[in-house]
Amino acid sequence: MTAHRKTPASEPGALSATLAELRRVAALPLERGETLPPAAYTSPEMYTRETERIFGREWLCVARAEEIPEPGSYLRLDVLGVPLVITRDEEGELHALSRVCRHRFMDVLPPETTPEQGSLKRLTCPYHTWTYRLNGQHVGRLAGAPLMRDVEFDNASCRLPAHPVEVWNGFVLLNLDPDAEPPAPELEGLDRVLRGHGLEDWVSVETKNWRDIPANWKVAVENGSENYHHMGTHAATLEPVLPGRDTRVDECDGRWFTMFTPYSAEAVAAAAPDGEPSRGRPDRDGETGPANGRDGQDPPGMLIAGIFPQFVLAVVPDSAVWIRWMPTGPTTHDTRITVMVPPDAPRTPDFDNYLVRLREQITLIQEEDLVAIRGVQRGLASDPPPSGGRFSHLERPLWQFQRYLAERLL
């Protein structure tokens, strides 16, 4: 193990030392892979660099397209302190606009008085009733500003700033960089893996939020990017059904990763008491890709697909869970977990009871994860700092994550 020298996170030169250590560990092969230095999870300067170079430039998964279902629909959200609203115009196109009024900086959809989702013909600031259009090419443009005729003011040039937005497999991707390249080329390989599931048509049936969790965002992302911890953190919940040791981690690189864990023999037998074979993952019509089994179809189990920096999707035959992490400070983050099911599932008998059980399961598993996530952050803040840990082969996505971070931050 490599001992990390104690350097206060705010000490001059501390960021340079942290980045130098990131460069070193990111260059190691997986067989000798080490954890990041503790300062990478505690340093305010590191956090500032991440928000500027990663979250300010990357495509982030923020919602499902079904949350903005029809023309006039809107969804309010905040991304790293940036107040935004996603709208759908009369042509069905999505737009991501700033919620900051161009008059005197008021939030045009204040959470104190407006719902998170709804329908509007126009955006009207509640402060001085400046109004903005939401239709097509004119979206965000000022439509009216009362009592501004007696001053020098060009209302034709007044417009809410817009941000790039795309829909990918039913997920809404947002980029705070106005010059961002489209996300599709980077995700083409992952598209092939997910194609047979038809996720763009799946429907959301439950969403839960956890706010200001006391841990750096990377601790949560790393926890959600490996199943090695099933045998410890989820020993009584996930491990008996999805044994972490049986996980096949695919050899991916770049922004996305995949892995697959088959159900245990006991779980398969319990799910098919009449001897009928359990339903496996959808046929991908012969598509080859990292998540395919040797014969083109895996046995029943769970596919995990992640996109750095803040998205993980877990798909099983009858449901899927997607997790969105969003940093709120150097050592805090928010977590949003949404459960999706195939479009016909809500109409099946006993679905309401199924959803109750699923909701309880998701909450229990997240609370188990939070024990680990908070515990790791406490360990990272200890003095003297912990020495560098080593990776299991099941933690390949964490090693890949380091390479991603190095590419963006160095």
Task: Describe the SSE topology.
Layout: H1 14-26, H2 44-55, E1 60-64, E2 73-79, E3 82-88, E4 94-98, E5 117-119, E6 122-124, E7 131-133, E8 142-144, E9 162-163, E10 165-168, E11 171-174, H3 188-194, E12 203-213, H4 217-223, E13 248-249, E14 256-262, H5 265-271, E15 301-307, E16 311-316, E17 319-329, E18 332-341, H6 351-380, H7 396-409
Antiparallel strand pairs: 1-11, 2-3, 2-5, 3-4, 4-9, 6-7, 7-8, 10-11, 12-18, 13-14, 14-15, 15-16, 16-17, 17-18
Helix pairs in contact: 1-7
Describe the structure.
This protein is globular. A 7-stranded antiparallel β-sheet has the order 12-18-17-16-15-14-13. A 5-stranded antiparallel β-sheet has the order 5-2-3-4-9, with no helix packed on it. It has a 3-stranded antiparallel β-sheet with strand order 1-11-10, with no helix packed on it. The protein is an alpha+beta fold and 410 residues long. Mean pLDDT is 91; it is low at 275-295. The protein folds into 2 domains: 60-174, Rieske Iron-sulfur Protein (3-layer Sandwich); 197-409, Naphthalene 1,2-dioxygenase Alpha Subunit, Chain A, domain 1 (Alpha-Beta Complex), CATH 3.90.380. It is built from 7 helices and 18 strands.
